[in-house]
Amino acid sequence: MIERQCDHCGTTYEAARPSSKFCGPTCRQRHRRNPELASAAPVAAVASIPAPAGVLVATRAELDAAGRSTTSLGAAALALAARIDSNLDTGSALAALVKQHSATVAEAVKGAQVSASPLDELRRRRDLKRASG
User: Fold this and answer.
1) In 36-47, which positions are buried (b, 16+ CB within 10 angstroms) versus exposed (e)?
2) Which helix (H) or strand (E) holds 15?
3) For residue 34, what pLDDT band results from cuts at 50, 70 and 90?
4) Is the distance from CB of 58 to CB of 80 less than 8 angstroms?
5) What CA–CA distance (Å, rounded) separates 118 from 4?
6) 23: which DSSP letter?
7) What is the pTM of this model?
8) What is the predicted pLDDT for the residue at 99?
């Protein structure tokens, strides 16, 4: 086997033949469709960019606040968030994941009583006393 660098994504792979140019059929097809993208944005570099906000962390916090992180919808929302954070999907697939994640989180927290902070509770009681007095 010969160690080569893929002409499309730039990753190193073991080539079965000396004439091999791509690490797999996906890169071969992508290069055939868009040869100008070969060195513009290597797939390996894009896949290693960390998510700036951390969708998984934010989703877990939202589900925990609603008390829904252990439900089946909560687990599904966390799985979608992990997939979004992985940065392994293309733009259209990522858009579909984000849309499904949003709908799943909304369904998971629907009807949940979000516990207010103690300060908010005190303000609410004070306002009720002032309104009735």
Assistant:
1) eebeeebbeeee
2) strand 12-15
3) confident
4) no
5) 61
6) S
7) 0.49
8) 93
Cβ neighbours of residue 73 closer than 8 Å, sequence gap 6 or more: 104, 107, 108
Vertex 115, ends 109 and 118: CA angle to 5°? Answer: 160
List the one residue out of 67, 77, 70 whose CA is nearest residue 106: 77
Q: Which tokens hold the place of 44?
A: 């390996």
Ranges of each domain in the chain:
2-47, 50-133
Share of the chain above pLDDT 70, in %: 83
Is the pLDDT at 46 greater than 60, yes or no?
A: no
81-108 tens-digit pLDDT: 988 888 778 888 888 999 999 999 999 8
Give CA–CA dist 75/80, Å, rounded: 9
The secondary structure of the chain in percent helix, strand, coil, rounded to multiples of 5, reads 60, 5, 35
